[in-house]
Amino acid sequence: MLNISHLQVSYGAARVIGDLSLPTVMPGSITAVLGPNGAGKSTLLKTIAGLASCRGTVILNDENITTKSQRARSQMIGYLPQTLPLPTTLVAYEAVLSACRSVRSDLSRVEAEKATEDTFDRLGIRHLAMRGLDQLSGGQRQMVGLAQVIVREPPVMLLDEPTSALDLRCQLGLFYVVKSIIRGRTACCLVALHDINLAMRHCDQIILLRDGDLVAAGLPAEAMTEQALHSTYAVEGRIETCRLGTPYVIANRVSSDAALEN
Question: What is the per-residue pLDDT for 69?
Fold first, then answer.
């Protein structure tokens, strides 16, 4: 399980995250990190991954990983940044195989190749395996980036807007695969998203951030209220429930007080 307590992050004199404590991220679960641009979503994931200095604690299975070296933390955490894999001539298969071997040094070459092939199959992208990254679309490179995370089998997955370049079918497929992996390995996952309804449908809990502070957190049906929507995004809207019982957000307009501020 993952526990984050009193996290503080600054870039120079600018405070980005201030004294942030979050509900426990349980094994086998996906937690969505939601909020407007500049809320601190990406910074939160980078900090957990060890790519930004911080105060506070990040506890993974009773161990404070903030004291670990970057090398040690990379064994525990698989991080998919917003930035897509560079469009180099390196073929997708080699990119994923390299990611596997960089962390899973216990595997033989044959075992690493098998893990790589299985990952391509699981994501349904075997047809991309022998293509250069410079020959792939943004969405295809995003899927290769996800494959680089999955093949390493980390106990924690941090995905920063993993669906931003994907079409609807691939978005649904991504969450199906990630949920299957997370629950099968009893790993935990934090995913930063802009699509609120995608988060409400596929994530076990949601975290709402604004200006580096926690607005609300909990089960989607409990944490996402009309007041939380207003406080987080400065929009007026309502929460409905579809015929399957899943809550979803209908945003109506920008809040009048927010319009005055702009």
Answer: 87
What is the reported pLDDT for 256?
Answer: 78
- Name the domain count of the chain: 1
Nearest in space to 161 (alpha carbons), one of 252, 242, 72, 44:
44
Q: Which two tokens stand for residue 119?
A: 């990952």
Domain CATH for 63: 3.40.50.300
- Residue 229 near residue 237 (C-beta atoms within 8 A): yes
Q: Tell whether pTM > 0.90.
A: yes
Domain housing 123? 2-261
